[in-house]
């Protein structure tokens, strides 16, 4: 029996190529004249396994990208909190009560943002990243089942070639005995290969198709987590806007003001060019 657990796919949050499976290159053995696996069957097998290899690659890439995204989200909100804390400890705030009030409001908003961001990342980790990781964990068993099928196929070809060799010889007593023995060796290997091949051809398409039902809850959860987060961000920054009710200067006005102050600083002797 194939060991990869297809039943795992029945759970909504249990599991979504890898190079574990080497290229299916026949061993250097005598090749039988008889076509033991129809070309159409072999093409079907290669197609279905190729789809699963691609699915494995995509799953691992998605898991990696999701982890990078959540790490970046956390780094962003932590940096925002640090900036507001640094501003609070800046001597400028001690000298300007109005500016201190603005920075305090900003610090509160950034800490709220960081808290909601952490909740969002925890939910994504639980409902998206972990299911992706569990799904990826199924593929080594699948690849091993394919590898065992390939090994059995090589044994099948070797023994079929051996049978053909004795069938082509003169039917003397010793040759007939060897032919009988070769056929007896071939029979269980042939049955084993056919069973492995049949099961893989039946179960690989089922495994591939089940990915949709498995991952749909995860991606729905991802979307909801983002909606909740950005809804809260709208509220947080809305509250912050209300606290900063006085209209500020335009970007152009601020740029001119900064340039004027910078020119004043440049005029000081301590920063004057030699």
Distance between the termini: 84 Å
Q: Estimate the mean pLDDT confidence.
A: 86
Inertia-based shape: rod-shaped
Helix content: over 70%
Report the sheet-strand fraction: under 5%
How many runs of DSSP E, i.e. beta strands? 0
**Which residues form runs of ≥5 with pLDDT under 50?**
1-28
Question: Could you state the order of secondary-structure elements as H and E?
Answer: HHHHHHH
Oligomer, anyone?
A: single chain
What Rg is obtained from the alpha carbons, in whole angstroms?
34 Å
* Count of helix runs: 7
Main structural class: mainly alpha
The major beta sheet can be summarized as:
none
What does this structure look like?
With about 270 residues, this protein is mainly alpha-helical. Helix content is about 75%, strand content about 0%. It is built from seven helices and no strands.
Which SSEs are present, and which pair or pack?
Blueprint: H1 39-88, H2 91-95, H3 97-136, H4 139-167, H5 173-209, H6 211-243, H7 251-266
Q: What would the keywords be for this entry?
A:
274 residues, mainly alpha, 7 helices, 77% helix
Briefly, what is this?
The chain is an all-alpha fold and 274 residues long. The chain has helices spanning 39-88, 91-95, 97-136, 139-167, 173-209, 211-243, 251-266.
